[in-house]
Amino acid sequence: MSYDLMVFNPKTAPKSESEFLEWYDQQTEWEEDHSYDDPKVTSTELRNWFMEMIIEFPAMNGPHSPADLDDRIDYDEITDYSVGKDVIYSAFRWSLAEKAYPKMLEMAKKHKVGFYDASGDGNIMFPNENGILESINKKTESKPWWKFW
């Protein structure tokens, strides 16, 4: 079991919660005709996000995994990235959740990509015109009728 987060291309992902979740299910079928461990298949923004993320959370597989990975059984930050054309799915150890979440969110803001909390609260965030990530999730809380003005 892993702690899973995903970044995505905000230009291609649906912007309604229900459509996004259907799209997410399709993306995670991993049916694209390429290897899922090389960021060359994805957008420039997602590739830049990946190259910066692997500094702190090295890739488990692919051309960007550390050469000494097999010799390092204590490599807690090692992360399993699945790179698609429009998404990068990141599987962390659960012990890294408090460290991985803010880092991924920070890098998503910096590189202006979307962010999905697949293992947590299900928050789906898209960058707005100013690059600020905003949630598209339906609000479950509402104001009492007497506070509408």
Task: Kindly describe this structure.
Helix content is 26%, strand content 17%. By secondary structure, it is of the alpha+beta class. The chain has a six-stranded antiparallel sheet with strand order 2-3-1-4-5-6, sandwiched between helices.
Please tag this protein with its features.
149 residues; globular; alpha+beta; 3 helices; single chain; 6-stranded antiparallel beta sheet
What topology emerges from the helices and strands here?
Elements: E1 3-8, H1 17-27, H2 44-56, E2 80-83, E3 87-92, H3 97-111, E4 114-116, E5 124-127, E6 133-135
Antiparallel strand pairs: 1-3, 1-4, 2-3, 4-5, 5-6
How do you describe this structure in short?
With 149 residues, this protein is of the alpha+beta class.
Q: What is the strand content? A: 15-25%
Q: What is the helix fraction of residues, given as a range?
A: 25-40%
- Output the strand order for the largest sheet: 2-3-1-4-5-6
| Low-confidence regions | 140-149
What is the number of helices? Answer: 3
Mean pLDDT: 90
Order of helices and strands: EHHEEHEEE
What structural class do helix, strand and pairing data support? alpha+beta
- Counting DSSP E segments of at least 2 residues, the number of strands comes to 6
Q: Give the N-terminus to C-terminus distance in angstroms.
A: 47 Å
State the major sheet.
Answer: 6 strands, antiparallel
**Global Rg:** 17 Å
Shape category: globular
